[in-house]
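ingest -> fold -> write
write: protein_1
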Amino acid sequence: NLALSDFIGPKDKKIQDYIGAFAVTAGIDMEKKSSEFKKNNDDYGSIMLSAICDRFAEAFAERLHERVRKEFWGYAEDEKLNSQDLISEQYQGIRPAPGYPACPDHSEKSSLFQLLDVEKNTEIKLTENFAMWPAASICGYYFSHPKSSYFGVGKLNKDQVSDYATRKQKSLKYVERWLQPNLNYDPKARG
C-alpha cells in the first residue's frame, strides 16, 4: 500500500526534496452576495455564484500548483501543457488534500492551517468539524516526486489506527471519529 510519505526523499539519504502546503479561496463575501440573490428570490443567481466561486478556487489552486512546478521549485520549467492536459493531470506532482482518499483525516487541516497561519493570511477559517469557511476554499499539500500519484488509503485495522493516534498524540476515540469511513473494524465493539 502507498503512503504520501513514499513521495518524499528519506531524511537519511540527504536528498534535496520538498513538500509544500497551500490554502486558497474565492469565497470571501460570497455568502453576502448569495444572500442578496436569495433575498430577491433569485435562487439561480445564488447557485451560479456558488458554482463560479468553486471553479475560481479550483483554478486558483491549479494555477498556484503550476507556478510551484515551473517557477518556485522549478522541477518542470519547460512544461507546456494545454487545458486538456491540465484537466487530466498530465503533469509531474500531486496536490492531495486532507479529508480526501490519500489523506482521509480531516483534522489534519488544523496542522496545515497552523503551519501557514491561514486565518490571518487568507481569512479562511475552519469549523469545529474541519469544514472550511467561506465555501469555495481549498487547502492541501504539494508533492513533486516524479512517481507521485493519487491513491486511496483504503481500510485501516485497529493496530494501524492506534499507532496513528499515538503518533498524532490524540486519543484512539478521537482518531476513529475522523477516520470512520476507513475503519476495518467496529470501534463500538471494544474489547
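write: protein_2
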Amino acid sequence: MDEKKDIKSYTREELVEEVKLLGGKAYVAAQVFDWLHKKRVYDFESMTNLSKALREKLEDGYYIADNRIVKCLVSEIDGTRKYLFALRDGNIIESVLMRYSYGNSVCVSSQVGCRMGCRFCASTLDGLTRNLTASEILDQIYSIESDIGERVSHVVIMGSGEPLDNYDNVVRFYELLTNDDGINISARNLTISTCGIVPRMYELAKLKAGFTLAVSLHAPNDEIRKSMMPIANAYKIEDVIEACRNYVKETGRRVSFEYSLVRGVNDSEANARELISRIKGINCHVNLIPVNPIKERDYQQSVAK
C-alpha cells in the first residue's frame, strides 16, 4: 500500500543506519526513537528537536503506524476491555486488555486473520489476509496505554493469527517491546503462543530470550489433534512435545500447554491420563479452557463433573 517506509518497525540499531542515510548522526536517531517510543507522537512535525530539513525528509520517505480505535467494549463484570483497531489499509484487528492484581495485561493480534484452520477458533474462518508489521503489533499496546492512562506490564500474543507464522515481525516486535529506551517491558512478562510450528519453536529457543512459550496442544494424541487442528497433519504431537522439552532446556523457562475442552472430543478421563503421560517430566503449566462455541462449528463446552 505504501511506498513510504514503516519507521516505527525499525530497531534502535536499524534506525541509526536509516538516519545516517538522511545525513543525520547517531544521536539524532536516538531522538527519533524517543519521539516514536517514549513520547509516542504520530507525525514528524511534532519532533521539534529535529531540524526542519530532516523532518521534511522523514515526512517524504516514512510513515508512523497509527492503529485507530473504532470500538471498545467494556465488561461490567471485571473491567476487561475489548478493542477493535482500524489499520492504515482499512483492515480491522482486535486486542484485549485484562486487569489483574499484578498489573495490566494486553492480548495482541499478530495477523489479520489466520491460515491455520483450527476448528475451535473464529479468527481463522476467513483465512489469512496478511501479516501485521512489528509496529502494528506494538501500537496495539501504545494505543491502549493512551486510552486508559495506565501502564501495561504484561503482553500475550494470543489474538488473531499464528505468531510463528509471522516469525520475523514477531521477533522484531519483541526487540522493540523490551528495548530500554522504549516501552521496556521485561521479556519475562511476554508470552508467545503457537499452534506448534516445530522449526520455529527451535528458532525461538535459540534466542534464549526468557519469554514464556504457550503451545496450543488441545489433544493428547495425533488422531484427536488432527480432527481439531490441521497443523497436526504437518507436525506430529511427539515432535511438538520434543520441541517444548528443548525450549525448557535451552531457556530455563517453563512452557504453557493450552487445552480447550470440547465435549465428547478431548475431555474424557482417558484423554486426561494420556495427556499426563505425554507431557510427563516437562516443566510446564496446563491451562484448561472451556471451548468458545462459534456458530460455524459444532463444538460444545464440556460439562463440569
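write: annotation protein_2
The chain has nine helices and 13 strands.
The longest strand covers residues 92-100.
pipeline exit 0
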